[in-house]
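Note to self: the last two entries modelled the partners one at a time, which told us nothing about the interface. This time every component goes in together.
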Amino acid sequence: MNTLSGPAGMLTYPADGQIGILMSALSGIAAALAVALAMTVYFRLSYRTWRDVLRHGLATLAAIALFAFAAYDMRHAALAYLGLNPSKPAVEFEIRMPRETLTAVTDTQIELHTDRNQT
Amino acid sequence: MRDLGDGRALLRGAVALNHRTADRVLVVNLPGKGTFEFRLRLPAEPHRAEQFGPWHLADRIASPLASAAAPQDAYTIRYRVL
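The predicted structure of the combined assembly is written out below.
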């Protein structure tokens, strides 16, 4: 039962991911402000040519690309370590049966039936 | 396939879990011997395991052999998620 209302209530009882969206928006705003400040300082502080701007821009792009790749790779490694790898799992099985039953292994047919692939 | 030496043989294999569902039945068809069904007791999104689980009896056997020659407790399965 919710006894709190207003902003305090939102922080205590998140509803349907609203608080997640709010936090993402605030993070994006903060990041954009930081980038805008950095660019303002860069363009106003010192004298540079267009070649300097191009070189600095390419270096920044390369650094961002490397950082993004590192973040993606670390996320993939962390998910794999935690067993949350989204790749399709498989089931390995062993079946014991009388020896005389398993005379022709090559003719054995094995299928996995589910409610998704059977009518 | 491996002979266990006690009158039983061991059949090993693997199947991919292509669907996210808890309703999974492994069907083994041995021509001339019958069809054996094993229900996999796994959640819809199972976690990987290092060890095999316990042995389970076959859930259903449809065999042309006499029922005495194909007792249900002679067919057991164990499995693990890769």
